[in-house]
Amino acid sequence: MSATTTTTGPSTLLKTPSGRLFSQGTEFKYGDFRDDILQNGYAVVNGAVPRDRALKYADDIYTWLEEFKLGFHRDDRSTIHKDQFPDINEKGMCLGYGISHESFTWAVRQEPAVVNAFEKVYDTEDLTVSLDSVNIGFPNRKDIKPNSPWPHQDQDPEKPGFRCLQGLVNLLPNGPKDGGLIVCKGAHWLSEEFHANFKDEEKIWSWTKEWYGFTEAGQAWLEEKGCEWLKVEAEPGDLLLWDSRTPHYNLTSETDQDRFCVYTCFMPVADATKEQLQVKKMAFEETKMTIHWPNAMHVVDLPVFRDGEADPYNRSKPREPVKLIERGFKLTGIPYLEQMA
Ligand SMILES: [Fe+2]
C-alpha cells in the first residue's frame, strides 16, 4: 500500500493507510474489520476458516483427547473429568502434551484467511506466528476450581501504543452464554491515560512485564469512562482479534456447549531480533510452546501435574512430526533467520 498525503498548512493529514494499522493517525476507513479494531479494540472476521473445516478441527481435538485412552469419550458427558483426559485448567488452557504443534493447531495457524487478516493489519507478508496454546473449555466442571475473571491486558504498561494484535480461531458455536472471550470495548484508546493514573497503585503480581491485571479500582475507572465489558459471540471458523492493550478475560460456559479455540497471534518478523528468532527456531524444532508474543519472548516449559505428581501422560512431542506447507514454515521465522546469517 502506498500513502497519499495532503499537506494542509503545518500538519500533514494521512488520507490513505500506509504501513501497519495504528502506526500513524488516519481518517481513512478501511471498510473491513480493521475499522472495528481501531474503534473498539477488537474485531470478528466472520468465516476466516470455512465452517466445515473449523468443525473438523474441533472433531480432531475431541479425537486427540480420546486418544489418551484415559476414559474420555465425546458422547459420554460423565467422562469430562481431569482423571480422564489431559490436564486442562479452569480457564480451558492446555499447557503440555505438545499441543502447540499438533496437526490441528498448525492447520489453523496456516489457514490462508487467518494469515491474510494479519497481513492486512501489519501491511506485510513477512510475519511470524506464535507457538501458542489451544483452549479446551468444557462447561459444568466440578472436578476443578471455578474460573474467576482475571481482567488484564497482555502488554507492558510502560510500552504504550499498538504493538501486538492477538487472535483466536473459534471452532464451535459460541453464543452469548457459551463462555469465551470478554473484552472491554474501546478501552485500548484509554490505555495510556489509565496507566498514568494508576502508575503508583499496588500491582497484581505477574510473571512477565507484558501482562497487567486490572484491580477493582482499575475496573471502576474504566466503568466511569463508559467502557463496557462485552461477550464476543462467534460461529465456528470466526477469527477473533484484539489489540493487546484491550482489557480482556474469558468466562466458562453457562450452557452445555463446549468451547474450543486455537490462539493465533502474528507479528512482523522485522519486530523480532535475531536472538528472538533463534529462540523461536529452538522452540519450533523442540516442539515447545510459546506465549502469544510471536517473537518467542517467553517459551512455556511448565511441569504438568496429575494427582500432584508429574503427569506420566505428558509428552514433549505431538502425535505426528510437524508437517508444514511453505507458507507455514515461513511463519516459524526460520527462513528469515537463515537470511540474517
Ligand atoms: Fe490475555
Q: What does this entry look like structurally?
A:
The protein is an alpha+beta fold. The chain has a single domain, classed as Sandwich (Jelly Rolls), CATH 2.60.120. The protein has helices at residues 33-40, 51-66, 103-109, 112-122, 191-197, 216-224, 274-285, 326-331, 334-340; strands at 5-8, 11-14, 42-45, 93-94, 127-129, 134-137, 152-153, 165-170, 180-184, 212-213, 229-231, 239-243, 248-251, 259-263, 266-268, 289-290, 299-300, 305-306, 309-310. The strands form seven sheets. It has a six-stranded antiparallel β-sheet with strand order 3-12-8-14-6-4, with helices on one face. Helix 2 (51-66) runs antiparallel to helix 3 (103-109) and helix 7 crosses helix 9 (334-340). Residues 1-15 have low confidence and may be disordered. Bound molecules: fe (ii) ion. Fe (ii) ion is lined by residues 152, 154, 248. Fe (ii) ion (FE2) binds at residues 152, 154, 248. It holds the Pfam family PhyH. This is Phytanoyl-CoA dioxygenase. It comes from Penicillium antarcticum.
Tags for this model:
341 residues; alpha+beta; Jelly Rolls; six-stranded antiparallel beta sheet; three-stranded antiparallel beta sheet; disordered N terminus; binds fe (ii) ion; Phytyl_CoA_dOase-like
Secondary structure layout plus pairing:
Blueprint: E1 5-8, E2 11-14, H1 33-40, E3 42-45, H2 51-66, E4 93-94, H3 103-109, H4 112-122, E5 127-129, E6 134-137, E7 152-153, E8 165-170, E9 180-184, H5 191-197, E10 212-213, H6 216-224, E11 229-231, E12 239-243, E13 248-251, E14 259-263, E15 266-268, H7 274-285, E16 289-290, E17 299-300, E18 305-306, E19 309-310, H8 326-331, H9 334-340
Antiparallel strand pairs: 1-2, 3-12, 4-6, 5-15, 6-14, 7-10, 8-12, 8-14, 9-11, 9-13, 16-17, 18-19
Helix pairs in contact: 2-3, 7-9
